UniProtKB/TrEMBL annotation, chain A:
One of its GO terms (molecular function) is metal ion binding. The keyword Endoplasmic reticulum does not apply. Residues 9-131 form the F420-non-reducing hydrogenase iron-sulfur subunit D domain. It comes from the Bacteria. Keywords: Iron, Iron-sulfur, Metal-binding, Oxidoreductase. This is Coenzyme F420-reducing hydrogenase, delta subunit.
From TrEMBL, chain B:
It comes from Candidatus Electronema aureum. Residues 111-205 form the Methylene-tetrahydrofolate reductase C-terminal-like domain. The lineage of its organism: Bacteria, Pseudomonadati, Thermodesulfobacteriota, Desulfobulbia, Desulfobulbales. InterPro entries: DUF5981 (IPR022026). Residues 200-222 are annotated as: Disordered. It comes from the Bacteria. Pfam families: DUF5981 (PF12225). This is Methylene-tetrahydrofolate reductase C terminal.
Length: 140, 222
């Protein structure tokens, strides 16, 4: 059975700034997966664990965060903080018996580099292999 | 402050598995400061409980609220506004808060979301260390302000024991030997001579071995 995952991306404004130019047409031209919904943040350090969990509550099959390299954040420690929060949610998923790779952190150079597309494709392939979110089971 | 940490999720989910309406109740006291049970942690826990129950095919309404403290009757009284709205309160306070709710709301279910661990302080961001055992008989004036009851693995009164190596505890090599610290500090303060006096056999009756302790200040009980 074909499965198109619902994937949510939270990205640093600086990392993703070129992705929104010309109405996002650049991303489409570069084959950025259409099933990934992007939310841009002023800094990934702004992200809270509840944002990541809420995405799962809203039906996401996978969630990932793209922020600056660990030593290259515009706000110094923003992407480090984001990585810690992603790690905390990964730990909580394990506690619930859910694959921790349903949530991931990536550190990518600022601007629209090939890596931005590559990690999107990697996440898409990973979530397709994991299948639908176990949180979407209907209430008995 | 009282330091605590969240219980394993499986344990929490088991407590509330049959509840349809759950109030995750944060405390703005110590557990907020130690990032275990404040409003932020309560929001995270509420989301985790919703997801955990959802995964088991169960649906529940899980909301959050907070009290200034859960260890004072006046604040517990404000729970009246939620009367009849929830099957259970999942408290993110320390054990004191859970006890207070259980005492004052005899007909309501209250569950602990945290394990209360110790009295301590924040050594650095994200790190808390035990500093006091609440033993009821403080000896800090003899030991340069460093507590051998809480910080020595053996609670020795005439330390150090023979097991410390290079200033580290034999029970846990990551832990500083507090008696080494006491000795060094008393030396810096030119009070090392005081350590030659033997501490007498300790009376532990103040430390809770006689059952729950209680303090009354008559001048305040109007």
């Amino acid at each position: 059975m074909s499965f198109t995952p619902d994937i949510r991306l939270f990205s640093c404004h600086y990392t993703a700034q070129q992705s929104c130019t010309e109405g996002g047409s650049i991303l489409r031209e570069l084959n950025f997966p259409a099933n990934i919904t992007m939310t841009r943040l002023a800094c990934t350090g702004k992200i809270e664990e509840t944002d990541l969990l809420k995405a799962f509550e809203d039906g996401a099959d996978g969630v990932y965060v793209v922020g600056c390299p660990l030593d290259g954040c515009h706000n110094v420690k923003g992407s480090q903080r984001a990585a810690k929060r992603v790690a905390s949610v990964r730990k909580a998923l394990v506690e619930m018996g859910v694959e921790q790779d349903r949530v991931r952190m990536y550190h990518v150079e600022r601007g629209l580099h090939p890596e931005f597309i590559a990690v999107a494709e990697e996440m898409d392939a990973l979530i397709r292999s994991l299948g639908p979110s176990p949180f979407c089971r209907k209430a008995a | 402050m009282i330091v605590a940490e969240r219980k394993p999720l499986a344990e929490i989910l088991k407590m509330v598995q049959d509840c349809k309406r759950i109030l995750v109740l944060a405390c703005k006291g110590c557990v907020t400061v130690c990032s275990a049970g404040g409003e932020r942690e309560a929001e995270i826990l509420a989301s985790l409980v919703r997801l955990g129950l959802q995964k088991e095919g169960k649906e529940a309404e899980v909301n959050t609220a907070s009290l200034v403290r859960q260890c004072d009757k006046e604040y517990i009284d404000s729970l009246d506004q939620y009367k009849g709205q929830y099957d259970a309160i999942l408290s993110t306070a320390c054990g004191v808060g859970v006890n207070f709710i259980a005492n004052l709301r005899p007909a309501e279910h209250v569950y602990p979301a945290l394990n209360t661990t110790f009295f301590g302080g924040s050594a650095e961001q994200g790190v808390w260390k035990e500093m006091c055992a609440g033993c009821g008989h403080c000896v800090l004036h003899f030991t340069g302000g460093l507590c051998p009851v809480a910080r020595c693995a053996k609670s020795l009164m005439n330390g150090p024991c023979g097991g410390s190596v290079n200033g580290r505890c034999e029970i846990n090599a990551e832990t500083d030997c507090v008696w080494q610290m006491i000795y060094d500090r008393m030396g810096r303060l030119e009070r090392q001579q005081e350590l030659t006096a033997s501490a007498p056999i300790r009376d532990w009756s103040s430390s809770g071995h006689g059952g729950p302790r209680k303090r009354v200040r008559e001048d305040l009980t109007v």
